[in-house]
Design a protein that fits this description.
Number of strands of chain A: 23
Largest interface: A-B, 79 and 79 residues
Oligomer: homodimer
Distance between the termini of chain A: 63 Å
Helix content of chain A: 25-40%
Chain lengths: 534, 534
């Protein structure tokens, strides 16, 4: 296994190891170092990758959407063809169970194919044509045609918690390449070997599809050096990131203070509040306790959509819910967390919560782990509305398998709690139809602050589809206009361009009279797939 | 006239003058002060306006798109009903000719109606529905429905150069209200009386349509105090601005460094380069000289799309073009500029250009103005490629009626000049069909850096329509994803929200099974206006 990994940066298909610094990955279950050392990219290598990306940009555009779709499909195949060695290395680096990794790999391949489908259908470019009106007075109207074009080279940061689906060939890379943007990936220090294996698959796909090699590079190194160099490089035009609020904000700030600011799409997680309304607690309290415990402890609680806060009216039904959820938290598996830093942050966050007067540990998992490294113990906390409202610490995400249940004294206090919440990826409401009517103000209030509002469901399990919105108001993300999951993620990396008065043959096929691609367009404000009659 | 103006801030329909500071507008033609004094908003009045906007947000949403469309139509009517007094005051404050102001008023009304049309058609919300698949394995797919919702209260800054179409009820306000966002307008110090008159019309329209008064306020005061207070207010969620790069960047920086960063849509103008290719110069040189001179001197050259740079191959045909354009610049009217500051900046910019070695004044308008205030003299400069490439000053916008013609030594030098250009609102290419083929690399290069690429036309005259893109890469705008002109401007002020598992009756009409509004939606990835069959 080790012998197959070279530990070098991959720039436009070539291996580069000009640097002297480097680091090994760590097995989070045992804290053992894993071979080989991964060489950090030098500033000149960052420069090379950016220049290669810029050079490749025009060629990529010339190849057209069908060609890009072919690349994405081939990438899916090549990643699946990596077989067991990918899963094994990835498990060593992340401690994520092999079953989870196999399904994450399927998701990764499916994402790539979903964007290929989108390109082949073609209407995503939002083509708009206003035909000329030469005899209009006082001035004629020119012929105006608009479509989306690529922003330019994109820096993609691998995410610790999704080594495949949000990493080298994950959703950010898939949507950026689909939009026609070259990609430079910064590997995550926790799973650089996984990154190298996937990058090799990407390079095989690119060679098979005769793509310009500059459209893809993989760099290793710390976020504070290599990451910031990428984000502040003048040739980089956008950034995709999934991770902590601290790191995401640092990238956002660096990008916003450039001479030419660029967009950073940072998805920074949230506590995903869950509201339990009286009818639901009465009718299905035990069932909801089961769903919540499963959602909160799934994958070591290391999902951006992990439900970290539960709010209900103080009642016998809520007491019964807490008891039942507590039993399930006690029985939950004590899993190894993704890395030592994340484990330490979970410990610290939990300890801070425990120290707050008015916060109680209602239940802790009793399981014993077979290994002794970075195991995170599922914990269910409880508190009351007054404590929550008086202590901003309770609104902060504790990344890991814990949830905090708040007993609200009244409907008013429950609404006050909802009103204090900042932007979240999701919020969930459990209720009967009658609850939903009686608490319509709660739904209206939450809608303003979240990317996705869920009724009688749990936030984990983010469907990759057309209607998904995985994002939301700050600090859930740095740009609430866009989702990082689903087909609409492509809009992060494209922008409109308008062509005025061009002859038909000089236009992209999407804008030509005949509509050779058969896409849906707006012609003189009307949606149609018809050609323009001469 | 004066007696009809109160000079107060208008907050949610109420007049407020708690402040002690204030300023009068100035007649730019004569530099005389115009009555009355306009009282600057206090910080507590900014706070009141923001709170009223937040309060009104939910109510506005509840009223639905048809109601918002009704408001926009009524606003158009009320603005037209202001009649001559509006045009007279606006002319006094801006020195813009009455004919131009009458047509700008029509444009303003038409913009409002265009957004009303968009709301009534309804498909702009980009509704996407992925229906549930309860029997999918290993996990069922939930019902997911996504549409665009309003961002929240928006701060709109009036533009000096469009006192009607980009001011109190201009494109930013129209698109923000259309999206469902309350608006707080900051008046421009050059035309506060125009602002007050239009705001009164807006308030009459709001009363007639029974709108919550908090959705609209008008504040007076400097950008550095009242403007920054607005942009940094926690309840403000987006900003629309048209003006200088300096002011736009200051607002962008203030918004990006907030605890919760918000988007600033600053359209900051550009020099809108025009490339003259050999065939066009040969076939239509004199005609192009006429079009260029008209475009460059129109409205005192005070359009964002003013063509400030012209590039052609050094040749007899280019010499003839310069001679002809020079004659037309000599004959061009010497018009009063919008205000003293803009006039001074034009003088300074022109003087800086004149001082550059290798830059020549090819022609200046010879006309004499009837008044003696802030008159800007149309000026045609010439220089060569080497001087241009060696001097970054020549790439800076000089806002006013001047153009700089660059003689490029070769095709390569012309392309090098194109490659040095940063983001622009537009670029224009004049050429024969053969030119366009031979210079396809020029078109490809320009496309990357501009919002709109024009063939055989001139950049002024920005059509308000579906396909327009008025924006582009920085520094043309701070967010190249969006246009500030045309129907797509609404997307600046809306964001997606996803609703998972909600019963049909609790969803907005746009997302209900029956599709009661008959809008175009994506259902399971397919575009259709059909209802969902049960």
């Amino acid at each position: 296994m080790t012998n197959n990994l070279h530990g070098k940066n991959i720039i436009a298909g070539e291996l580069k190891d000009g640097g002297t610094e480097g680091a090994r990955a760590e097995n989070p279950a045992t804290r053992e170092q894993l071979e080989p050392k991964f060489i950090h990219a030098t500033e000149s290598e960052v420069q090379q990758a950016a220049e290669q990306a810029k050079e490749a940009q025009q060629e990529l555009l010339g190849l057209g959407p069908a060609h890009r779709a072919g690349l994405l499909r081939r990438m899916a195949e090549e990643i699946l063809a990596l077989g067991d060695p990918l899963i094994e290395r990835c498990h060593l680096e992340t401690a994520l169970p092999e079953g989870r990794l196999v399904s994450e790999r399927s998701r990764t391949a499916n994402q790539l194919r979903l964007f290929a489908d989108l390109l082949e259908e073609g209407s995503w470019v939002d083509a708009r044509i206003d035909t000329a009106i030469p005899d209009r007075t006082p001035t004629p109207r020119p012929d105006l045609r608009r479509m989306l074009i690529p922003l330019g080279p994109v820096a993609v940061f691998c995410a610790s918690n999704f080594p495949l689906a949000f990493s080298v060939a994950g959703g950010d890379t898939a949507s950026a390449l689909a939009a026609g943007c070259p990609v430079i990936v910064k590997a995550h220090g926790s799973h650089p070997g996984t990154a190298e294996l996937v990058a090799a698959a990407v390079n095989r796909a690119m060679a098979a599809e005769k793509m310009p090699p500059g459209i893809f590079s993989l760099l290793h190194g710390p976020g504070k050096t290599v990451g910031i160099q990428l984000v502040t490089h003048p040739l980089i035009k956008a950034v995709g990131f999934t991770g902590s609020r601290h790191a995401g904000r640092a990238l956002f700030d660096a990008a916003a203070s450039r001479p030419e600011p660029i967009p950073v799409y940072a998805e920074m997680g949230s506590i995903n509040p869950v509201f339990l309304l009286p009818g639901a607690l009465r009718d299905r309290g035990m069932e909801i306790a089961g769903g919540l415990s499963a959602s909160a402890t799934l994958g070591g609680g290391q999902f951006c959509t992990n439900p970290g806060l539960v709010v209900g009216l103080d009642s016998e039904e809520l007491d019964a819910f807490v008891r039942q959820a507590g039993l399930l938290f006690q029985e939950a598996a004590v899993e190894t967390m993704l890395n030592t830093r994340i484990h330490r942050a979970y410990q610290e966050g939990s300890n801070k919560l425990k120290a707050v007067k008015g916060v109680e540990v209602s239940a802790e998992a009793i399981g014993v782990s077979e290994v002794d490294g970075n195991q995170g113990r599922p914990t269910l906390f409880t508190s009351d509305g007054q404590t929550f409202l008086g202590n901003p610490l309770l609104r902060e995400e504790v990344f890991g398998p814990s949830s905090l249940v708040i007993r609200a004294r009244s409907r008013e206090e429950l609404l006050r709690i909802a009103a204090t919440l900042k932007g979240h990826l999701s919020a969930s409401i459990h209720g009967s139809e009658q609850d939903l009517q009686e608490y319509s103000d709660l739904a209206a209030l939450l809608q303003r602050n979240v990317g996705r509002l869920i009724f009688n469901g749990f936030p984990t399990g983010v469907e990759v589809c057309t209607a998904m919105n995985h994002g939301g108001p700050y600090p859930a993300s740095t740009d609430s206009h866009f989702t990082s999951v689903g087909t609409a993620a492509i809009y992060r990396f494209s922008r409109p361009a308008c062509f005025q008065g061009f002859p038909d043959h000089a236009l992209a096929p999407e804008l030509q009279d005949e509509n050779p691609l058969g896409i849906l367009r707006q012609i003189d404000g009307r949606y149609t797939r018809d050609p323009i009659s001469g």
